[in-house]
Amino acid sequence: MSDQSGNDEDPGPYAAVHARPEGDATVARLALTAVEMGYEGLVVRNHGDADAEPLPAGNDGTDAEDGPSSREDPADGAYVPERVADAYDVDVVPAVEIRTDDRGQAAGLLSRYREERALVCVHGGPLNRWAVEDPRVDVLAHPMRGAGDVNHVVVKAAAHNGVRLEFDLSRVLARTGGERVQALRDLRKLREIVSYYDAPFVVSVDTDSYLGLRAPRALRAVGEVVGLPPGDVSAGLAEWGRLARRNRTRLGEDFIAPGVQSGRYEKVD
């Protein structure tokens, strides 16, 4: 497998989740549980059609979690990353998962979100090959789910373009019988091809509920069942944080939050 380890300053494990309105928990509730389980960061990766909007810290809090005048559990899921991060001592990474079967629409959404979010994922399925051929994509999410599949062409392109392939362990944890057997087969196939091409990867449990989160040690145990050594699982959980750090740097030294930067701006007529 790809050596994704780095120096002593590399981040610890990150949980990648779907929050309200797509999930049943707010970003704050997910952050609390993630910290209790030993995670260092939380990636909020809602699908674009059920987005949880990250707001700048200066927002008045009318619709955002933990705002001074907000509802405790806003239906639209809006949140202020800095506020949640400060409250729970966790890195909160605003992300998005593009979900569409139309390449033209996907390309437009990718251009939009690439400038707005620290991480951009593409929902695995019919657009697997398209996603791995565009280096602007950070993660091809759960590529084996549904109609999705991977082959040597897809994984080789992912390795060439630096697109991370996701090992989603949720189906192994949540399914039983034949469905669980198929999930194991899919992950073992993915592991074999990823290992062959030394392709980059991330690991998650891809949950939409705080009840679905699992501690890193539990995921390391599950990983061994599909042939992922504990060190690879740890590296895959930390890779979310490494990606976020890299992309925040690329957005500029004055980056504060998506769409928000410090400094002076000239008025454009």
Automatic annotation (TrEMBL):
InterPro entries: Pol/histidinol_Pase-like, RNase_P_comp-3_arc, RNase_P_p30. Gene3D superfamilies: Metal-dependent hydrolases (3.20.20.140). The keyword Cell division does not apply. GO terms for biological process: tRNA 5'-leader removal. It catalyses: Endonucleolytic cleavage of RNA, removing 5'-extranucleotides from tRNA precursor. It is found in: Cytoplasm. Keywords: Cytoplasm, Endonuclease, Hydrolase, Nuclease, tRNA processing. Its EC number is 3.1.26.5. It is an enzyme of class 3 (hydrolase). Residues 1-11 have a biased composition (Acidic residues). GO terms for molecular function: ribonuclease P activity. GO terms for cellular component: cytoplasm; ribonuclease P complex. Residues 1-22, 46-79 are annotated as: Disordered. Coiled coil: none annotated. Its main location: cytoplasm. Belongs to the eukaryotic/archaeal RNase P protein component 3 family. Part of ribonuclease P, a protein complex that generates mature tRNA molecules by cleaving their 5'-ends. Consists of a catalytic RNA component and at least 4-5 protein subunits. This is Ribonuclease P protein component 3. It comes from Haloglomus irregulare. The lineage of its organism: Archaea, Methanobacteriati, Methanobacteriota, Stenosarchaea group, Halobacteria.
